[in-house]
Amino acid sequence: MKSITIKGSQRESVGKVSTKALRNAGQVPCVLYGGDKPLHFSAEEIAFKDLVYTPNAHTVVISLDNGDTYNAILQDIQFHPVSDAIMHIDFYQLFDDKEVTMEIPVRRIGNSPGVIAGGVLRMNQRKLKVKALPANLPDFIDADISKLEIGNKLYVTAVGNDDYKIMHPENTVVCQVRVSRAAMKAAQDAAKEEKAAGKAKAE
């Protein structure tokens, strides 16, 4: 999985006053969990744009100005309810021998015969939660739709991999091909016309 480096500074003071001062200075207060004790640090808000405002999944290298570095994943993020500015971010520290749970984006591959025939592809799950060692975390989970006819569904059991465990029930639908509204309306109109014709003929 691709990694993004976030350069930050460790925080000693974590009260409301210091946190407000950080935000006023364009800094985002952050906490790194998963180690011996929580680590408080801050980084410029612009440093998170490639991590937060993207559909892709990334691990993070937190590089502090004291020389310490930590591998992590984004665990939780809080936005301002009005301005949408980043208010706070929680990270979770990664260890090579410890499995971690993370949401991974689904990438569809192939062409569906059902879509070509006029059906509509519906993505029920755009991300899937997986559990794996950090080295086995995928960038994407590929959903092969090349065999989906109209009415077919692709379940999570078809997109699994030995490198990671998908944390969803086996009957979870990743995507499906449905009859388009236009095709459904045309079929309904045709049925009505046929019924009316049959009634007229009977009379």
UniProtKB/TrEMBL annotation:
> Where does the Large ribosomal subunit protein bL25 beta domain start and stop, copy by copy?
99-179
Gene Ontology biological-process annotations: translation
Q: Which keywords belong to this entry?
A: Ribonucleoprotein, Ribosomal protein, RNA-binding, rRNA-binding
| Example of a GO MF term | structural constituent of ribosome
Highest taxon of the lineage: Bacteria
Q: A cellular component term (GO) from this record?
A: cytosolic large ribosomal subunit
What does UniProt give as the signal peptide span?
none
Stretches assigned to the Large ribosomal subunit protein bL25 L25 domain: 6-91
InterPro entries per UniProt: Rbsml_bL25/Gln-tRNA_synth_N (IPR020056), Ribosomal_bL25/Gln-tRNA_synth (IPR011035), Ribosomal_bL25_b-dom (IPR020057), Ribosomal_bL25_C (IPR037121), Ribosomal_bL25_long (IPR001021), Ribosomal_L25_dom (IPR029751), Ribosomal_uL5_bac-type (IPR020930)
Q: How does it assemble?
A: Part of the 50S ribosomal subunit; part of the 5S rRNA/L5/L18/L25 subcomplex. Contacts the 5S rRNA. Binds to the 5S rRNA independently of L5 and L18.
According to its UniProt entry, what is the function of this protein? This is one of the proteins that binds to the 5S RNA in the ribosome where it forms part of the central protuberance.
Protein family (similarity comment): Belongs to the bacterial ribosomal protein bL25 family. CTC subfamily.
Protein name (record): Large ribosomal subunit protein bL25
Organism, by scientific name, is Galbibacter orientalis DSM 19592
State the taxonomy lineage: Bacteria, Pseudomonadati, Bacteroidota, Flavobacteriia, Flavobacteriales
